[in-house]
UniProtKB/TrEMBL annotation:
Keywords: Aspartyl protease, Hydrolase, Protease. One of its GO terms (biological process) is protein processing. The keyword Hydrolase applies. It comes from the Bacteria. This is Hydrogenase maturation protease.
Amino acid sequence: MQAASEPGQVDLEPPGCKVLVVGCGNLLRGDDGVGPVLVRHLWELGVPDGAQMVDGGTAGMDTAFRMRGADRVVIVDAAATGSEPGTVYRVPGEEFAELPPLQGLHTHSFRWDHAIAFARWALGDACPTDITVFLIEVAGVDFGAELSEPVTAGMHTVIEVIERDFLAPLRPAKVAEVTVEFTDDGYVRLDAALAASRFASDAVAAVVRDDDFLLIPLRGPRSGGLLLKQRNPAGDRSALIHEVLYGRIPVGVRRAFWDDEQGALRVPLDPTS
């Protein structure tokens, strides 16, 4: 299929991405929902530019077509091999040379391994070659159950690996010393690079300790706190901190430092600090 090149034509090519993460499984069946739950955790941590996070559910055929245009694909699903619950398997896509048969399949029996096989058949050269599958051994798949403790632990291990090996290279470099701007209408403004590198989830807590203003990243809006709102087309972000700094807002541009010990952006309120 060719991209649209003349007025009036419609470009049906899907947007490409550097990394596609697909969580497969049924949220209603206990540990079988670990893939979609993992994707929700990644959403809360913040999706960097160039990445896409998809709740693949049980729609394997949708997963296959989602792969078009992706440089790297990560698929996460539950496994039931009889091993210790929470065991994590990392399987390179190259190991799926012997693909499962596609004849006689219908949508209810279409799994992630069928999705890989179908994508190779349907997409041809447009099918990504860099595919990694993470499988997490289940403890139970009862209807209405929560994720078990061992599967939850395994899920967080996989999240750490995905962040380290796939998402971290897409995130902006983290700079130790930056500047922020306090406005006279009670906002703190962060430039786009600072917001993306330190506050990717768009949720923050703002507190004052002694003579320091601290802006602390949270795991997403469900954690409460303040939301960083887009301030301009450049992607600069801002949060309303009027109530936190009532009567002592240091209007203007101020130096700020990343405090590793407190896990926060620290802004000295004393201009001599």
